[in-house]
TrEMBL record:
Matching PROSITE patterns: ABC_TRANSPORTER_1 (PS00211), ABC_TRANSPORTER_2 (PS50893)
SMART domains linked to this entry: AAA
Keyword Transport: yes
Pfam families: ABC_tran
Presence of keyword Endoplasmic reticulum: no
Organism: Faecalimonas umbilicata
Ranges where the ABC transporter domain occurs: 2-233
Gene3D superfamilies membership: P-loop containing nucleotide triphosphate hydrolases
Keywords tagged on the record: ATP-binding, Nucleotide-binding, Transport
Name of the protein: ABC transporter
Molecular-function GO terms, alphabetical: ATP binding; ATP hydrolysis activity
């Protein structure tokens, strides 16, 4: 579903933020991406989402190259940044309809999904209010609902659990499972290692722009915890 091959990114005047990264996410995967602050997670995620240019390597989504055909890639994925920049002057429902228009989701299908996800995430009552009046968690929920409107094959999320209340956290986890059961794939960054350990079937650890561990959670961890492994590889490995 997502193939990142020999991907490197250098910001102007800086060292490589990501260096020769190879990572493969398959349909049905919930793939966690972890690393210290500044390790290169957001840089990778933004490049996959097609919002950051890069010079080295290839990224394909469902077999489509993000550089060659960014629009086709964006049609089959959803990206939720760590701090969603929503249109504050719109109401929640206007925003969802705007996203529905962009992704050409048919009106009756859209209505049903907005109702279902709005109810699930307890946001239906606030959809008539301007986004500017939402709390951080409400904006996160709106961004999640907008991502689900077109049933993406790949969902990419940067720190999705920050700011969500326990109920919304559980709902998001359930939604991720549900998406994967119908053959979609999820790739997300997080600092919450116990959530990643329980939720993900695969994990990758990045350190100073380089991948240090990746693969099936069970075979990587053996009897250790993800926290233990993370500390071991990020503190000791050069
Ligand atoms: N716009 C930018 N211009 C220059 N350097 C940048 C820019 N964005 C990120 N960097 C640098 O690239 C490296 C990787 O940053 P990135 O944001 O990808 O890390 P991260 O793993 O997402 O960190 P965090 O967990 O703090 O969000 C860091 O050294 C950072 O300083």
């Amino acid at each position: 579903m997502l193939r990142i091959e020999h991907f490197s990114k250098r910001y102007k005047g800086g060292k490589k933020a990501v260096d020769d990264l190879n990572l493969f996410v398959e349909a049905g995967d919930i793939y966690g991406f972890i690393g210290h602050n500044g390790a290169g997670k957001s840089t990778t995620i933004k490049s996959v989402a097609g919002v950051l240019e890069f010079e080295e390597g290839t990224i394909t989504i469902d077999g489509i190259d993000i550089k060659e055909n960014p629009v086709a890639c964006k049609k089959c994925m959803a990206y939720i940044p760590d701090n969603p920049d929503l249109y504050e002057h719109l109401t929640g429902i206007q925003y969802l309809n705007f996203i529905g228009d962009i992704f050409e989701v048919e009106a009756s299908v859209r209505k049903e999904r907005i109702q279902r996800y709005g109810d699930q995430f307890a946001l239906t009552g606030a959809l008539g209010d301007p986004v500017a009046s939402y709390s951080h968690g409400m904006k996160q929920k709106l961004a999640i609902i907008s991502a689900l409107i077109h049933e993406p094959k790949l969902m990419i999320l940067d720190e999705p659990f920050v700011g969500l209340d326990p109920k919304a956290t559980l709902l998001l986890k359930n939604t991720m499972h549900e998406m994967c059961r119908r053959g979609a794939a999820i790739f997300f960054s997080t600092h919450v290692l116990d959530v990643a350990e329980k939720l993900c079937n695969k994990v990758a650890i990045i350190k100073d722009g380089k991948l240090v561990v990746s693969g099936e959670m069970e075979s990587i961890l053996k009897d250790a915890s993800l926290e233990h492994l993370f500390m071991e590889v990020t503190e000791h490995e050069k």
